[in-house]
Fold this sequence. Notes:
Elements: H1 3-16, H2 37-44, H3 48-55, H4 64-73, H5 78-87, H6 104-113, E1 118-122, E2 127-130, H7 132-138, H8 151-157, H9 159-163, H10 167-187, H11 192-204, H12 206-213, E3 222-229, E4 233-243, E5 249-256, H13 259-271
Helix pairs in contact: 2-3, 2-4, 4-5, 8-10, 11-12
Pfam families: HTH_31 (PF13560), MLTR_LBD (PF17765)
Domain HTH cro/C1-type: 34-81
Organism: Streptomyces flaveus
Amino acid sequence: MQREQLADFLRRRREAIRPAEVGLADGPRRRTTGLRREEVAMLAGMSVDYVVRLEQGRSSQPSTQLLGALARALRFSDDERDHLFHLAGHRPPPADGVARLARAGLMRMLDLLGDTPALVLSDLGEVLAQNRAAVLLSGDLTGFSGDRRYIAYRWFTDPATRAVCPPEEQEYHARQLVADLRAAAGRRSGDPTVTGLVDRLQAASADFRRLWAEHEVAVRRADRKTFRHPRVGRLLMDCETLVTPDQRQQLLVLTPADAEARERLELLRVLGIEEFPTEATGTPVQ
């Protein structure tokens, strides 16, 4: 671990970023160049004290999870992210996305979308990042671990996850999830990450086995879904998906499909995220 180089790199990258680039207001009394340390801590989900120790070269070796959070918070490019991992004494995440880091360009697009809910997902349906508007709509979907990271796994193994979708849409949504996973499995033939997930889903869910056996394939790029939100009720949303050239990551943008959904989304912005039950919400996003 190259503590001094790591400290210098993080400090200089923090000072080079304007608050607007990460969705923060400049404010009339900002005296520091770039972001404040407390803003980096907030964006990365860590303590201010640890950010200070990192920048002063006094920290223990940061974990890969922490480095990934810093890379997202500071909007690192792929090259900058790899350099960060090298300085911290870790191997950079592989190109296949196993480390589950959203691409820097997609992160910048999240910031630019502002009040429009948007998420970055892997091709296996793991939410890698989401903006505040998406958290308001569907809860924080980035904190799951194990197979629960994948939306299809939660859908077929957790009744509470399916319950947030209207009953009349559940079969359609299940078919879409399976068809999309089938397309990913075809692109990544022989990938143990994909085959392992499919095997575990087949073992865990008869419903998944039924749909998987039908061999339907569909990469979803546009859709319309109903969100049953615990605070504002139903929101009908149009879903537009933009896929990276290698098809490993997607930017999902959600816009209100009617006037009622627009009003309820605006109400959500006013209510904020106080006491928002994130664990039981958010599945109909892909």
